[in-house]
C-alpha cells in the first residue's frame, strides 16, 4: 500500500460554482463569490474585515504594507516557520528577529519574546503550527505593553478555535492560507483579516492597487481613482467559487481530520515506547483543526532513519521546517545555527505523519502499523 503525505480534498461542488462564476461575466476579485465567501466566514466565526488574497504569502505582505513596515524595523517571529513569514517583512527592508519555539507545540515560546523587544520592534508574527493556536492572549499582552502590532500567521489553522473563537480573531491582523497543502483549498488562496476597524478602509485601497474601487463596487461613488500606495492582492472570483464549495464542507473536512488525529493520539498513548517520543500537547482552551500530527524522535539520526524506513514501507513521512535562522538566507542575515539551539534541535527531531481528509481507516491503520513496527525496531 502507498500512503501519500497529503491529498487535496475535493467536495464535488467546486465545478458547479466555478461554472457559475465563469457564466457571471465577472471573473476578477471582490465580486459575487468573494462576497459569498466573506459572508460565510463572517456568519460562521464572526470575523469582519476579511480580504481574500491570492495566497497567505500575499496576505502577510498586505498586512506588512498596511502597518507601513519600514527599513530598519524589527519583526519578532519564530525561526521555525515557512519562508513567507520572514519574506513578508524582508521585502520591506525590515529585519526578521527570530525567537525560539516551545517543545509542547512547536509554536513561539512566549517567555522568550520580551527579551527580543527593542525600540525598533514594530511587529510580532507568531504562527499556529500544525493548526494548533499559539498563546495569543499572552502575546497580545506583551504587544500592548510595548505598542507593537501582532499579525498572526494562521496559514495552517483556519477553523481552529482559541477560547471558543476562531484562531486569528484576537490578533490585530491575521492571515489564512487556502493552498492545496492546507485543510481547505482553492489551489492557491488566502485571506487577510483586519480585526481593527480603523485600518479596514485603507486595507481596501492597498489590495485594489491603491484605489478606492471598493467604494465604487459598493455603489458609494461612480468613479475610482488613485489615493494610496498598493498592489494587486485580489483572489479571482473563479477561485473564490472553488473556495466557497470547500467552506460549505468545512465541518466535514475538520471533523474527518480530527478523527484521524484522535486515531494517532490513541495509538501514541498506548505505544510501548511512548516515553521515548513526544507529540503535541494541546491546552484545553484550544481546539485544533486537525491539520497535522507530528512526533519528536529522540535524535536527528533516529528521525531520519524513521522517515527512510517508512518510505520503504510505502508511507510518506515528512520533516518539518528547516529553521530560517540557520538556512542559507538566515546566515546571510547574520544568524548562526547556535543562536537558537532548541529550535535547531527540535527541527532535527520532528517527523510529520500523513493526514488528509479522506484518509481511510485502512490507510491510517496501515500507517500506524508500519510506524509501530519501525519505531519498535529503532527504539528498542
Ligand atoms: C503554508 C504557509 C504559508 C504560505 O501560505 P501560501 O498560501 O502558500 O502563501 C505561510 N505561513 C505558514 C506558517 C504556512 O504554513
Please describe the structure with a list of short key phrases separated by commas or semicolons:
three-stranded antiparallel beta sheet; single chain; 380 residues; Aspartate Aminotransferase, domain 1; 2 domains; binds pyridoxal-5'-phosphate; 13 helices; Aspartate Aminotransferase, domain 2; alpha/beta; 13 strands; seven-stranded mixed beta sheet
Secondary structure layout:
Elements: H1 14-24, H2 32-45, E1 50-53, H3 56-66, E2 74-78, H4 83-90, E3 95-99, E4 121-124, H5 136-146, E5 149-153, E6 161-162, E7 165-166, E8 173-177, E9 190-194, H6 200-207, H7 213-217, H8 237-247, H9 250-270, E10 278-279, E11 286-287, E12 293-296, H10 300-312, H11 328-332, H12 341-349, E13 350-353, H13 361-379
Parallel strand pairs: 2-3, 2-4, 4-5, 5-8
Antiparallel strand pairs: 1-9, 6-7, 6-11, 8-9, 10-12, 12-13
Helix pairs in contact: 1-8, 2-8, 3-4, 3-6, 10-13
Bound molecules: pyridoxal-5'-phosphate.
Residues 55-57, 81-82, 84-85, 127, 153, 155-156, 177, 179, 190 line the site of pyridoxal-5'-phosphate.
Structure, explained:
The modification N6-(pyridoxal phosphate)lysine is found at residue 182. One of its GO terms (biological process) is polysaccharide biosynthetic process. This is dTDP-4-amino-4,6-dideoxygalactose transaminase. This protein is an alpha/beta fold and 380 residues long. The chain has two domains: 13-244, Aspartate Aminotransferase, domain 2; 250-379, Aspartate Aminotransferase, domain 1 (Alpha-Beta Complex), CATH 3.90.1150. Helix content is 38%, strand content 13%. The protein has 13 helices and 13 strands. It has helices spanning 14-24, 32-45, 56-66, 83-90, 136-146, 200-207, 213-217, 237-247, 250-270, 300-312, 328-332, 341-349, 361-379, and strands spanning 50-53, 74-78, 95-99, 121-124, 149-153, 161-162, 165-166, 173-177, 190-194, 278-279, 286-287, 293-296, 350-353. A seven-stranded mixed beta sheet has the order 1-9-8-5-4-2-3, sandwiched between helices. Helix 1 (14-24) runs antiparallel to helix 8 (237-247) and helix 3 (56-66) packs across helix 6 (200-207). It is globular. It starts with 13 loop residues before the first helix and ends with a helix. The model has no long low-confidence stretch (mean pLDDT 97). The structure holds pyridoxal-5'-phosphate. Pyridoxal-5'-phosphate (PLP) binds at residues 55-57, 81-82, 84-85, 127, 153, 155-156, 177, 179, 190.
Amino acid at each position: 500500500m502507498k500512503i501519500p503525505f497529503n491529498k487535496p480534498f475535493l467536495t464535488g461542488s467546486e465545478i458547479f460554482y466555478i461554472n457559475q462564476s465563469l457564466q457571471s461575466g465577472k471573473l476578477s476579485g471582490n465580486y459575487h463569490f468573494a462576497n459569498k465567501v466573506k459572508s460565510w466566514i463572517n456568519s460562521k466565526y464572526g470575523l469582519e474585515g476579511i480580504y481574500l488574497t491570492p495566497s497567505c504569502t500575499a496576505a502577510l505582505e498586505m498586512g506588512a504594507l498596511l502597518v507601513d513596515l519600514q527599513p530598519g524595523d524589527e519583526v519578532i517571529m519564530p525561526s521555525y516557520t515557512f519562508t513567507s513569514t520572514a519574506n513578508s517583512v524582508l521585502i520591506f527592508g525590515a529585519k526578521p528577529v527570530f525567537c525560539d519555539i516551545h517543545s509542547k507545540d512547536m509554536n513561539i515560546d512566549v517567555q522568550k519574546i520580551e527579551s527580543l523587544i527593542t525600540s525598533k520592534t514594530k511587529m510580532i508574527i507568531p504562527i499556529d503550527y500544525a493548526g494548533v493556536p499559539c498563546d495569543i492572549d499572552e502575546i497580545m499582552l506583551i504587544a500592548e505593553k510595548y505598542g507593537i502590532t501582532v499579525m498572526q500567521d494562521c496559514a495552517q489553522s483556519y477553523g481552529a478555535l482559541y477560547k471558543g473563537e476562531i484562531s486569528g480573531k484576537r490578533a490585530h491582523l491575521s492571515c489564512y492560507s487556502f493552498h492545496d497543502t492546507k485543510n481547505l483549498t482553492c489551489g492557491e488562496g488566502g485571506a487577510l483579516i483586519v480585526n481593527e476597524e480603523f485600518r479596514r478602509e485603507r486595507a481596501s485601497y492597498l489590495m485594489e492597487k491603491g484605489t478606492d474601487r471598493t467604494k465604487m463596487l459598493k455603489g458609494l461613488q461612480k468613479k475610482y481613482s488613485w489615493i494610496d500606495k498598493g498592489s494587486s492582492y485580489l483572489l479571482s472570483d473563479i477561485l473564490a467559487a472553488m473556495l466557497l464549495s470547500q467552506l460549505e464542507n468545512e465541518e466535514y473536512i475538520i471533523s474527518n481530520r480530527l478523527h484521524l488525529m484522535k486515531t494517532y493520539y490513541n495509538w501514541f498513548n498506548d505505544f510501548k515506547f511512548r516515553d521515548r517520543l513526544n507529540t503535541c500537547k494541546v491546552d484545553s482552551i484550544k481546539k485544533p483543526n486537525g491539520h497535522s500530527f507530528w512526533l519528536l524522535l529522540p535524535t536527528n539520526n533516529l528521525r531520519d532513519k524513521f522517515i527512510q524506513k517508512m518510505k520503504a514501507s510505502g508511507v510518506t513521512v515528512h520533516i518539518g521546517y528547516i529553521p530560517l535562522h540557520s538556512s542559507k538566507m538566515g546566515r546571510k542575515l547574520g544568524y548562526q545555527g547556535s543562536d537558537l539551539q532548541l529550535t535547531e534541535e527540535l527541527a532535527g527531531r520532528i517527523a510529520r505523519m500523513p493526514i488528509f481528509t479522506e484518509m481511510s481507516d485502512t490507510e491510517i491503520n496501515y500507517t500506524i502499523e508500519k510506524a509501530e513496527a519501525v519505531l519498535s525496531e529503532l527504539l528498542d
